[in-house]
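User: I'm new to structure prediction. If I give you an amino acid sequence, what do you actually give back? Let's try with this one:
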Amino acid sequence: MGVETEADRLFMINTTDFGTTATYTLVAGGVSSVVGIFDNEYFESDANTNVGFVSTQPRFVCTSASLPSTAGYNDTVVVNSATYKVRVIQADGTGMTTLILEKQ
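Assistant: Good question. You get back a string of structure tokens that encode the predicted 3D arrangement of the chain. For your 104 residues, that looks like this:
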């Protein structure tokens, strides 16, 4: 469990420094704005074939409280004018959640 408050977590991801605002749309309907940190890191994988390929792993880290309570698989996130589908939701137990995304 985290020791910081929701205000502390929001301060760490504010849009003045590292954060950005995304539009979160539920499959069931409903739209909200969520502030978080978007990352689209490159990584190499070779799946034990000795032939690597490079891909990206887009993800969005936000406070758990800022997500809709019914957030889930296949919801849509628009960040930096690009559309992504939510593939995995990883709550870390400290008040932060990582959304693993797939570009559409």
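You can read the tokens as a compact description of the fold. Here is one thing that stands out. Residues 82 and 103 are 7 Å apart (CA to CA).
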